[in-house]
Structure prediction request, 173 residues.
Amino acid sequence: MRAAREPAEFALPTRRATRRFGAVLGGLLEPGDLVVLEGDLGAGKTFLVRGIARALGVPLEVPVTSPTFALVHELPARVPLLHADLYRLGDADELAELGLVERVGHDAVALVEWGERFLAQLRGEGLLIRLSHDAVAGRRMRVSPLGPRGQALMDALELARAEQDARIATRVT
Prediction:
């Protein structure tokens, strides 16, 4: 049995870097995957979701906004895509009313903002992404795997980062 991966740190100094990361991650996600996003207000959770959604095929004319009041948006993509914001949820019992639990791990990719406190109820595999923002350094992410599928996604993200670093090194020399 493979040991659990340690969390990985990613620097996202620009909005473009955040969009690129979202595009890479979106290209890796499959139905059943769960991505939980945490971070202070303004840390870039919805901005990252937008990059992931576009990579999953959500058309440019479809706005990707925070579902703060609707709680869950289903977006047209190459796979069913759910974008949830659980900030206003009072307790885990309210998850059942959203229909989210029935879809996580099954037919949809679920991108869940403010969902860490509900991980046990969501029971999905994928990634937990903690975003922070520094006025000088830009965005930073700490990405942790959730289950074996999360470890596979982490492996693929690390490979993509290594390939990008190699391309940058090639351009410089």
About this structure: DSSP finds six helices and seven strands in the chain. The helical segments are 15-28, 45-55, 93-98, 100-103, 119-122, 147-172. Confidence is low (pLDDT under 50) at residues 168-173.
